[in-house]
Every structure is written in C-alpha cells, then in structure tokens.
Specification:
Blueprint: H1 13-23, H2 32-36, E1 40-43, E2 54-55, E3 60-61, E4 67-70, E5 76-77, H3 79-88
Antiparallel strand pairs: 1-4, 2-3, 4-5
The structure holds zinc ion (2 copies).
One zinc ion binds at residues 55, 57-58, 60, 78, 81.
Length: 111
Amino acid sequence: MDEDDIDPDELSYEELIALGEMVGAESKGISEAEISKHLNPLTCQSTTNLLIDRCVICQVEYEEGEKIVTLQCDHPYHSDCITQWLQIKKICPVCGKEVSTAEMANPSNLN
Ligand SMILES: [Zn+2]
Ligand SMILES: [Zn+2]
C-alpha cells in the first residue's frame, strides 16, 4: 500500500476544496464559453429578492436595474466577476457548490 497516494474518493468535500486551494489555480476552472452556459442572466429589481445583496468577489452592492447573473445555486454575481472566478475555480464562492456540466440538463430550471 502506498499511503502517499491521495484517493479523491476518500476525501470529504471540504478536504477537496482545501486541496484545490493548496494546488492553486492549476486548471481547476472552466473555459469562458463553458462558464456562460452556467450563468443565468438577471436584472436586479431589488436587492431584497437576492440571496446576497452584493457580489462577494468584488464586495460591491448591487443596484436596482443592474444586470447580474446567478449560478445554479441562485447566488448572484457580476457577470465579469464570476466569469473570472470560474476560470480559476469552478465552484460557487459563497456555498462551494461545484458548477458541473452534468446538472445543466436539469429541466426544473425552466420555470
Ligand atoms: Zn463583482
Ligand atoms: Zn452558491
């Protein structure tokens, strides 16, 4: 048994995230074209309708009428901010949910 080998199946999600942070930006993200498929465009009507009233990446509060995007987990971001982020790491910065291609086929998003 070689105990130096890391088996991803035996790591918890948190450990995987920590591992990803240690490894750094080494191709953990996804391409810009891929990212755009995961962003749901939204016009900010009122920040009270949002899970979070600001973009956690740049820490700027949203304004009424501002065009923003949400991820599958409904967390809102500036399009530019989250696009840059996801090119580095394909998880939601707020909840850590992975932006996975497989789940995009989910028809319950259509309402
Ligand atoms: Zn931002
Ligand atoms: Zn999220």
